[in-house]
Amino acid sequence: MSKLAGKTALITGSGRGIGRALALKLAADGARLVINDLDAEPADEVVGLIRAAGGEAVACVGSVTAPDFAERFVKTAVDHYKSIDIVVNNAGYTWDNVIQKMSDEQWYAIIDVHLTAPFRILRTAYPVISAAAKADLAAGREVFRKVVNVSSAAAGGNPGQANYSSAKAGIIGLTKTLAKEWGRLKVNVNCVAFGHIETRLTVPFAGAESATVDIEGRKIKVGISQELVEMSKKMIPLGRPGSAEEAAGSLSLFCGPESNYISGQVIVCGGGFGSL
Predict the structure, then answer these.
(1) pTM listed for this prediction
(2) Residue 183's domain spans which residues?
């Protein structure tokens, strides 16, 4: 039997990049997925891939920062699968500037997507997880559920990223707090901090102009200069950025039974670069 058979996994930002790679990996391990993306097309594509491979998946499209998103996300899982076993808070992006030029909009947009949204999702999931944990206890079963939050090596501070660094440091605090609050429910709460991972948000660009992505009507510059890419390679002991699949592999470590006695921990997936 697949190690995640019968488990329901909710992954934000799973229509693309690291989240997509993780969704496909967990589905291959037998999990039932709730897929989320800002846009319907990538979310539906991942759902289709999972179903075509014989797995189970449904989509919950929309911004994780929307006031009603947490309720819709949790309700989607409960309506379709009657359970919540794994929650991965992965959705996010960067919107950089030095602090004297950073607007309130920039600050709150990044804090909301990386810290407020996970808080709301986990708060909303609590009654479902708590009820299941009480039922397990009454039946004499020890069943572990998983929360995996995504941080960054930038949580240690990064020029031009006061908003992002603060949010990613905050998610570590949330992780460690929930590990203590939810331990009695047999929930393992852990965190993965990424270094340089190749996604659409970190694509190299030549010249002065970077690409942009549309985030809720905002045109956000993404990518890093080729010069910084080469510098990064020199700083990473393994000699290159990580792939989305490698990043997903680090997240999956905390989703399965192998992590049943690990909680409140932060690991850095950065090819040997970065520590927290």
Answers:
(1) 0.96
(2) 8-201+243-269
